[in-house]
Structures are given as structure tokens and as C-alpha cells.
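Hi R.,

Here are the chain sequences for the assembly we discussed:
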Amino acid sequence: MPIIIDQKAILRQDRWTLLREASGPEVLQAAPGRNFIAPLDFYLQYRSLLDEYPGGKGVWLDSNETPEAIASDLESLAIIALNFPVFRDGRPFSNARELREHYRYGGEIRAIGDVLRDQLFYMARCGFDSFALRHDQNPEDCLAAFRDFSTGYQASIDEPMPLFRRRHDQRQA
Amino acid sequence: MYRYDQYDHTMLAERVAQFRDQTRRYLDGKLSEAEFLPLRLQNGLYVQRLAPMLRVAVPYGLLSSAQLRKLAHIARHYDKGYGHLTTRQNIQFNWPELVDAPDILAELAEAEMHAIQTSGNCIRNVTTDHFAGAAADEIEDARPWCEIIRQWSSFHPEFAYLPRKFKIAVCGTPADQAATQVHDIGVYLVRGDDGETRFRILAGGGLGRTPVIGQMIFEQVEKPHLLSALEAIMRVYNREGRRDNKYKARIKILVRETGADQFREKVHREWGRIRDSAMMLTKAEIRRCQSFFSGPDHVQRLNGSDALEDPLRKDAEFALWHRRNVRAHKQPGYAIVTVSLKQTGVAPGDISDRQMDFLADLAERYSFGEARISHKQNIILADVEQRRLHALWRELAAESLATPALGLLTDIICCPGGDFCALANAKSIPLAEEIQRNFRDSAKLEEIGDLSLNISGCMNACGHHHVGNIGILGVDKKGEEFYQVSLGGSSARQASLGKILGPAFAREEVPGVLHILVNVYKAERDPGEAFLDTYRRIGHEPFKQAVYADHH
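And here is the predicted structure of the full complex:
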């Protein structure tokens, strides 16, 4: 099981099981009592089965998939995981921002796949709030990543006002 | 120029600390080569043929005297005593050690400088016309807009892992010396019917393997919406740009494969979603950024081009330099001076630590403590009093920095080429030097007149050969260096891409070919007609026939 950082702390117990691949619904029987993050195709086909889980349901999008595909379901999704097939694939950054800013998605957005220490800070700024670290990452090091910068120029999910507006407010005060 | 406040300083210091830690982890073996690669690139570090190369950002080419002195210090202490001005208004050092890089970056930070995003698949240093704020005919000073874009693009969390590198140029002058149309995004300041300045935004231009002129994406964006318009283009590109093939990953390929109309539609749809968000620029912010670039207080210092007339009459060398290297300033009594770094025997754009110190001094004494780097690899002193031009010229001439070559055939744009670059197919610097030796006579050069000659050592086109009136591209033929010549390129407002003349030449043949091209032009030109205009009027054939008839 990967180590999960959630809300900038190491998560002790993760209720989610990530289904990397899933062809048919029998896969759900294999881990009773768990909650699932399903691949998009599976999710679109079997989402009614997932509705029966008391802990909620989740879906994961690969970097070539977009939130539009699940736009009408967002309120019922407790978690959306965004996959980095390789750490330098920048598409999930845009997906996370779109989920937060355009769709106003308020649930958990988790980074999965090639999730490394040196990309965590920007991920957090784009709206990710949990991170399934690649197996070789040092979790303590990764926690430090969220302190790489104390501020940024742009508006972001964790700081909705761009710096130029904050600067101005400060001068007015 | 823009001055850092505590926010800028804090972020830069944090970036230096971050990269120090990353370098340490890499050297300790905790970070793999592949994982370190984009981190070091986004901090300006390339691995070159002989040593790492550090590319330092010079935002829109503008430098203070203190910054020039800091660069001289870096050249002296961490390099072999010189730096190289790039075609994107930056400066690069060819000989630093990787272990020294964090210290160099810390030293740069002391002078409000850095190497952030000068490389890698991110938004690079924004560039502009090197006469911005001084040109007599500009619509509006582009530099405050460049600074606004610099801040928005620095550490942008969403766009640090784009499909490929991304270059933005902003231009407020009719002449356009920023090569705006061959950038991933080109922003023109234009005057609307109501007299307000707006932005005309192109996307999908570029050089490299597939040279393309940008397509118009926004006709007239109002000032407050500049950043959302840029962000909309970036988001569509980040999402849809190709990631399967490095050679097809630039935005120009996406625009072409999507079709300009459909690409524009996608961008405008995205723009509609984010246009009225918090990134809408406020009047206060625009005013704040403009306040850093108010021109020098010219009015009281006026009094006279009289002092200029006498030396112009009496000193022919000064007069020649004045004709070539001095341009009109928007403020009467002032002039824009270009210091040519194209003296024969020195690689185009190379500048020594002594020259940097010297020019820092001159900038302080003659041009309000500021200098600029042009994409043509020269240094500009943009605000010089006309009555002091002669004195300035004498000081420059004493240091061999008064080559009167601006805009002439020997004002060559040239990449580092096979002497330094691991990508190059052929050397470019020795060829530039041979050409300069072949066209030594400054009277004859002036008689040929305006003619841009650009040399790239490979198809990545760092020397902008596609947009030279004459372009030269180094190619490899079975292990031997050859040079392909093209004609008719231009990066100005009326931009055009050069057309290949024919089979490539051996290096020693190139100067002879240039003589033939120049002779055809001189025989065919109308009075006062520049090379490019003659070429556009008479076409490719006369040049081609003359060259290959004589040759084969």
C-alpha cells in the first residue's frame, strides 16, 4: 500500500482501495468492506453498484481524460484521483484546477501514479489535497515540500487572490 | 526598472534554497538523473558538450548597472571570464560547475536576478523590443506588460510541466524588433478605434524544425483581461499539446493539427470561464507596474543637438557610427545607442567580464544606470543625451566597442554552434568570423545597407536562420559540415520565412556565395531599396541562377 499524505499529514488508515484495472463487477467482492476508486470506464458502466457503499465512491482519471466525463456526478463523488503516468505529465494540474474552479468540486482530489516530492507543492496549489506517494519516496521529506514556498504570484486554490491584489490590499491597510 | 519588494525577494530566496536541496539530493544519489533533469533545466542548467551551461534570465532584456557588474563577477569567478548574450535577451555562461550552481544562484539573487524558467518545458523568460519605452514611434511601453506577464508566469503551478518549452514576446513598436510572430505566443500592443491600447494575441508561431508564423487568436483584448487570455491559451495547450513526440509537442503543431479556427474556439470557450476571475488586472496594479518604467526626467536636461553637429561634420568615423548605431528617441534631445558586440574575431554576442564592468560604468554615466540586451545579441544604452554622444563614442571606440555595424551584413545573429552545443550539426562561430573578415570594409558594408544574416548550427534554429534576410543553417552530410543558405526571411512586422536557395555549400564556399548574392542585389536594386525589398520584388530565381551558374 502506498503511503498517503492527506491534508499535509501522513494518513494512518486509508479507507480507499484503488482499482488500477477493473473489467467486471466481481472485482468489488475481492475486498469487502472497502471503498473503491474505480477507473473511468468501469465507473461509467457500474456506478450504480458503487452507490451502495456507505463510505462513498470514487473514480480516477488518467491524464488524457477530463472532468467533463464525470461532470454530472461530481456531487456524489467523495474522491477523485488524478493519475500521473509519469511525473512530468502536466495535464492533471489542469484537471485539478478545473475541478476546483470551474466545477466547484469540494471533495477530495488525490494525486496517484508517479507522485514525487518535487512536484507536491505545485499540486497542492492546483487543488490536490491528498497524495499517494510513489513507493520510494521519503514521507518526511515529502511533508517538507509543502513549505517550499511561502507564497506565489498567481491566484490558486489555496490562495484565491493573486499577489497583485494582496499587495494592493496591504498598501491600502 | 522593476524593483523587488519583500514578496519577490522571499520567493527568490525560497527558490534558491529549494534548488540547493534538490542538487544535494541529486549529488547524494537520492534523485535520479531523469527526475533531476526538469528541476535543473527550470533553474537554467543545461549539460553541454564540454561543461554545464547556466542561462541567466534577463527579464525582457533589461539590466541595471549593478546587475551587469554582478554578471561580470560571475563570469570572473565561476566561468572563464566571459558570457554569451542569447537570442532571447538572456545571458549564458558556458563553464560553471554543477556543484557551484546553487552558490551562483544565491549570488544572482543578491542582485534581484535568477535563472528560473530559462530552460525546460515551462513558460520561459518573456521578451520584447529592445527599444521599448524609448522608441520614437511606439504605441505604448511594453515593459510594464512584460513585468505583469513575468510575475504571472513565474512559478506558475499549472504550467511547469508543459508538453514543450513556451516562449512569449510582447511588442509595442511598429517595427517589431522582438520577432513577435515566431513566438509560441506573440502579444502586440495595438491602438483601438477609441484610442485605448489593447492586445492582439497570436499563438502557434515558432522556428526550429518546423518554422511557422503565429495565428491570430485574440483580435483585441482589453487591458484587464490580458492574463486570463494568456491562461486560456496555456490551458488548452497543456491539455491537448502532443506529448508522444518531442518534435511535435510545440503549440505550433497543436494549432496546425487542430486548425486555427477550432483552436481559437477552444481558447475562447476556456476564456469565457476564467475571464472575470480574480486574475483580472486592476487599474492600481497596471499603474503600479507602469510606475517602475517611467522614462528619465528629460525635460530639464535638454539643450542641444548643436553640440552634435560639429563632431558629425568633422569626424567621419563618428558620423558613420552615428548613422548606423544611433536611433531616434521619443524624447527630443536624447538618442538610443546600440553597442555592437560583433567585432571581428569575437564570437557574436560574447562579452567579457571587463566589458560588462565597462558597460555598467557607461550605463551609469550616460544612460541612467540601465542597459538592455537585444535579441540580436548587442547591448543597448537607451537614454543617452545627444550632446554627449561624441564623448560616449570615444569611450566605446577606445575599447573596440564602436563597430558601426548595426543592421549590416556583419551584425550577424549566431548560435554557439558546434564549438559548444551538443545538439549542433556544424560550427557556426568560425563561419561568422570568416564572413566578417570577408566583409571588412565599413564603407562597402554601408553601401550594401540593411541586411540581416542569421546563422544556426542545427535545425533547432537558435540563430533564427529562418528569419534572416539571408539565413545559414549548418547541416551534417556524412559526418562533414555543410551550410544551407536561404533567402527572404524577416522577423519584423511583415514577417516571412526564408526559402532555401539550393544544395548546401562547404564552409569555405560560403563567403563567395554571399558576394554573389550581394552583387545580384546591388545590380537589381532600385535607389534606396533594401536587400529584402529587392528580393521580394524580383524573387528567388535571379539569386539562385547567379549562385549556381557560377558554382557548378
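The beta strands of chain A are 4-6, 9-10, 16-18, 35-39, 57-61, 77-84, 108-113, 130-132. The first strand of chain A starts at residue 4 and ends at 6.

Let me know if anything looks off.

Best,
T.
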